[in-house]
Amino acid sequence: MYELRLYISKKGRIKFVSHLDMFRLMQRAVRRADIPLWYTEGFNPHPYISFLLALSLGVESEGEPVDIRIVGDMSPDEIKERLNKCMPEGLYVESAVKPYDKSGDIAFASYTVTYSKDDVSESELFNSLSSGVLTCEKSGKQGKKKVMKQVNVSENIKSFTLSGEGEDILLDVVLPAGSTFNLNPLQLSQAVSGYLGKEVVPVRMIRTALLTGDMTKFV
Questions:
Q1: Cα Rg for the chain, rounded, in angstroms?
Q2: How many C-beta atoms lie closer than 10 Å to residue 65's C-beta?
Q3: How many Å is the maximal CA-CA distance in the chain?
Q4: What contacts 213, CB < 8 A, 6 or more positions away?
Q5: Are 189 and 173 in contact, with CB atoms under 8 Å apart?
Q6: Distances in whole angstroms, Cα of residue 177 to Cα of each of 70, 74, 157, 167, 174
Q7: Helix (H) or strand (E) run with residue 92 in it
Q8: Is 64 exposed, middle or buried (0-12, 13-18, 19+ CB in 10 A)?
Q9: Model-level pTM?
Q10: 216 DSSP 8-state letter
Q11: DSSP conformation class of 117
């Protein structure tokens, strides 16, 4: 048995498939591809497939890490080729490699968020992101109850840059991610909307990479 890390791109309409349904989809693809996965033991054995960080609904991704365990000696290249023949439209295995970092090493995620100039100007976005007072509501827990908590978004923006592309504005931003605290582009846009007093909705959101605490790419 050996562990393998798949890097998967998720583009197009499949961005609306939930995290749980993605797990089921991967199980079906693995079965169709006849990949010799290792199964857990016990009364209800299931194949070992681990999406290392759940992706928010509506967000596309590049290089999404998925860990699997292989029984036998099928090569990573053959596994990649077999899976890509069985993947639905919008999903593609970019690479299959031996894992290096651990899932607990994930600390940040980089995103490219596209906004329409019809909805917001570059200066409005820059002033919002530089204001230091952006906040949003985020679900949390108080004891055993789920509650909505006010979160300071500004202090959690690691870095950002803005650029124009035709009728669009591209925001490249690094936000916290991992097992302790996460922010996603929708929550960031909610905070921008609150600051500007108007609704600002992204045209497109892509998670481009996961990063470790020292800002190196997760591998």
A1: 19
A2: 21
A3: 58
A4: 105, 107, 108
A5: no
A6: 28, 33, 11, 30, 9
A7: strand 91-97
A8: buried
A9: 0.92
A10: P
A11: T
Q: How far is CA 173 from CA 80, 157, 181, in A?
A: 30, 7, 16
- 93-111 exposure pattern, b = at least 16 Cβ within 10 A, e = fewer: beebeeeebebebbbbbbb
Matching residue, tokens 């582009």: 185
pLDDT in tens, the chain (219 residues): 899 999 999 999 999 999 999 999 999 999 999 999 998 887 888 889 999 999 999 999 999 999 999 998 999 999 999 999 999 999 999 999 999 999 999 999 999 999 999 999 999 999 999 999 999 988 777 777 778 889 999 999 999 999 999 999 999 999 999 888 899 999 999 999 999 999 999 999 999 999 999 999 999
CA–CA dist 70, 139 (Å, integer): 37
Helix (H, G, I), strand (E, B) or coil at 140: strand
